[in-house]
What we know:
Distance between the termini: 16 Å
Helix content: 25-40%
Order of helices and strands: EEHHHEHEHEHEH
Strand order of the largest sheet: 2-1-3-6-4-5
Shape: elongated
CATH architecture of the largest domain: 3-Layer(aba) Sandwich
Largest sheet: 6 strands, mixed
Number of helices: 7
Number of strands: 6
CATH class of the largest domain: Alpha Beta
Number of domains: 2
Radius of gyration: 27 Å
Structural class: alpha/beta
Mean pLDDT: 93
Strand content: 5-15%
Low-confidence stretches: none
CATH superfamily of the largest domain: Ribosomal protein L4/L1
Amino acid sequence: xxxxxxxxxxxxxxxEIALSDVVFGAPxxxxxxHQVVVAHLANCRQGTHSVxxxxxxxxxxKKPWKQKHTGRARQGSSRSPIxxxxxxxxxxxxxxxxxKVNKKVRRLAMLSALSMKVREDLFTVVKEFQLEKPSTKxxxxxxxxxxxxxxxxxxxxxxxxxxxxxxxxxxxxILNVASINVYDLLNSKTLVVTPEVVAHLEEVxxx
Length: 207
């Protein structure tokens, strides 16, 4: 059972928290994490790209010149893909890039990502964020104190002060625990959470 130190907003140790083996001590499954990340990036694509084919470009209704006896190659339309201002051959059209990932695979990837952060000592539990008002300076000082590089801050209900304090720090990201995902976990280095987030994750994934 992993045991992590709890720090206050000054970076001082205030106790320890025992983490669930099921959620934070799971074996790493790299293929599951890879599949979920690829699907996540694919699902972010809008797929609205589109070009006009030779049948959609305006003009080109008239045959450029007669079929024979001109000394030039035969042409049926001035909107052929080989002509200037012609249509595009085999160009992109709107499509759906969505990839389906099974629930068990998503859960396996999430457990692997969380366990990897704990195993690599990139998991920090903060007792509470003492912010009476938004303060990027205070949050940046705290991140430097705990040596958090490219941090991902996950919160439950700390409110707008925390969000506005983190969002202007270069390389930092902040998410509500309901929006936590494998891509952001792997794309960040240090994971910063509160005990409430740990309890929520254990309640959801320790099944």
